[in-house]
Specification:
4-stranded parallel β-sheet; about 180 residues; 6 strands; alpha/beta; elongated; 5 helices; disordered C terminus; two-stranded antiparallel sheet
Amino acid sequence: MSRSTGPVGVRLGIVRGISYGMSGAPDSFVPEMRRLGGTLVRVYVYWSQVEPEPGRYDWTVVDAILGQLDPADEVWVKVCSGSPWATRHRTGFLPSSPAHDLRRYERFVSDLVTRCRGPVDYWQCNNEPGNTGSCGRGPRRTTWSSSPPPPLCARRGPGRDGGARGLRIRRARRR
């Protein structure tokens, strides 16, 4: 199926809920979406899922997503910075929170982008980073900003077309 399938200007896809792989094995959802004529996939990946402990990576969820994709799929990954050990607000899920150590977070994102090299078209930080409920203390406390392009992604893992689209990492501001 090509990306142009369907009425002109209309793209059908799926947002695989914010809890994908959080409480059980990651399930299949992309083939089902394709059977309905969809080609746009948006998924959430949490720091706590990929690096549950410092330096120990578990690629189960990421590999489950990558294993379902084909070249016609347009893929958008939301990287959520929830972590029970690496963020100011300790959580394995939401709300997302700024990292204690931005270099460690940059390394995590770099490793994630490298792992996904090629099939991901868009990268986004956190869920609703401008929501004043995110990160517990308002939008100025978020870990990423909304200004493309992301230098880290451009350097380490370009999208399918060679360009990186999405967000860049910046230091959280303190008031």
